[in-house]
Amino acid sequence: MTAARRNLLARSRDYLKLWTAATISLFGTQISLVAIPFIAVLLMDVPPYQVALLGTVQFLPFLLFTLPAGAWVDRLPRRLILVTGDFGRAITLISIPIAYQMGVLTIWQLYLVGFVNGTLTVFFDVADQSFLPAILESDDLVEGNSKLQVSGSAAQIVGQPLGGAMIGLLSAPTAVLLDAISFIASGGLIFWIRAREPKRAPAVPTSSGPRPEIRSEVAEGLRYVLGHPYLRYIAASTGLSNLFTSIAFATFAIFTYRILGLTAFTVGVIGGVGSIGILVGALVAGRIAARVGVGRTILWAMILSGPATLLAAFAEPEDAIAILVASGFLTSFAGVTYNINQVSLRQAITPERIQGRMNATMRFLIWGTIPIGQIVGGILASTPLGARGALVVGGVLSCFAFVPIMISTVPALRTIPTATTEASTEGPLDADAQMASPGSSLD
Questions:
Q1: pLDDT in tens, 405-431
Q2: Burial class (CB in 10 A: 0-12, 13-18, 19+), 112
Q3: Residue-level pLDDT at 419
Q4: Would residue 343 be called left, alpha or beta, if left means φ above 0 and alpha means ψ between -120 and 50 degrees?
Q5: What letter does residue 171 receive in the DSSP assignment?
Q6: What's the CA gap between 423 and 430, in Å, rounded?
Q7: Which of 7, 134, 299, 385 lies 20 to 30 Å from 211, alpha-carbon distance?
Q8: What is the pLDDT of residue 52?
Q9: Which of 62, 131, 75 has its CA nearest to residue 347?
Q10: What are the tens digits of pLDDT across the range 219-259?
Q11: Domains and CATH numbers, the chain
């Protein structure tokens, strides 16, 4: 492979725009990740269950809208969905500093912003994962996803400490304004992407007309994922991991600010330094997969994530920084290594015409567990167990999330196969027969 071939950012201007847009918005999002919980916990002094509800309402749209979003993403121009999602989220975030300056900001507005932004994120994320294969060749997907993960790591390393600093220098609501500006910049860059999405294969006609109903298309996506020998097990493990880690971290802001007594800047620094694991994972995920196989890499990354989550529960005020940094590094390293390989696998093996519904179904299954976990975590933190007890329960359970992948054929994969033929999705797929020879978020 030549140097020019490896330099994806120089070789593809459209990918450069997409990567730059993602990098800018990711930096802004990390600022809000620190600022909004700070607003709820310290400026509004809300109880634990209301803090947990912030995460619940943000991820509830993944339960409500993800499946139909996949069908619409496969019908509509994906670039248009991405631009609309960015601009829409910018508008909702701008309302927070405005309401704060007027003295009318309430927890209910934060819930509304979280729900609307969550809905827009549903469409954005499904379109985003489905759009990348439209501007990159199959052989470039791992590199493309890796570069996006590097941006994510850089954003968390710098963005969270920056968010903490902005809270100290300005105010938490004003810091949210920076996130809104980042979405505007991101939407503008995506708007200027010139690549045209490939023409999609026409939908299979039905008795009711030339195009199936949304419900039929949603069912097709469900059948594809649940009938696939790799995707169904990846969805099970990822969904369980997200469920259990959401229980653990539903009231993490309560744990850090009230129990450990940390400042916003310290929390930001911990998040930033711990996120170096994303950078390391993004740089070595492909190399690990090349050495031990993509399937084993997916399995062992999931195995590592559970104990790494549990480690955070043992933090005390005197050693909080060291333990939380270690936990953050290990969880981010495991998460990005897992995501790069399993997302690239999903994108490569799925036919173009069903990419949107595949990603939507996966998001429904794996992110739909997050609001459930947030509610359970909030309930546990409101009992005598407290926020630390919720961390322990979620951390212990997350140590078993790897089981579905372990019992599947995924670990036998040496390399990523390709979608050479498209299986029929008119009935339950016999995907095990079609792919009997494997060939070798958590997103």
A1: 999 999 999 988 865 444 433 333 322
A2: middle
A3: 58
A4: alpha
A5: -
A6: 9
A7: 134
A8: 85
A9: 131
A10: 888 899 999 999 999 999 999 999 999 999 999 989 999 99
A11: 13-195+213-434 (1.20.1250.20)
Outline where 201-293 has alpha helix (H): 214-226, 231-249, 252-254, 264-274, 276-292
Give the count of alpha carbons within 13 A of 324, CB side only.
23
Cα separation, 191 vs 81, in Å, equals 10
* Structure tokens, 202: 């026409």
Closest to 163 measured CA to CA, from 38, 333, 24, 330: 38
Please report, to the nearest 10 degrees, the dihedral formed by the alpha carbons of residues 235, 236, 238, 242 taken in order. Answer: 120
Helices 320-349 and 294-311, interaxial angle, to 10°? 150
User: Tokens at residue 414, please?
Assistant: 């040496």
Kindly provide the b/e burial profile for residues 376-391, where b requires at least 16 CB atoms within 10 angstroms of the residue's own CB: bbbbbbbeeebbbebb
- Token match 């850090």: residue? 256
How far is Cα 406 from Cα 414, in angstroms, rounded to an integer? 15
347: which 2 tokens? 């994108």
d(CA 21, CA 363): 22
- The pTM of the full predicted model, rounded to 2 decimals, is 0.72
Other CB atoms within 10 A of residue 8 CB: 17
Q: C-alpha angle 86/88/94, rounded to 5°?
A: 100
Q: What is the DSSP letter of 202?
A: P
Tell me if 53 sits within 8 A of 355, measured CB to CB: no
Residue 394 CB partners (closer than 8 Å, separation 6+): 244, 245, 246, 247, 248, 249, 250, 309, 373, 377
- 409 is written with which tokens? 């054929």
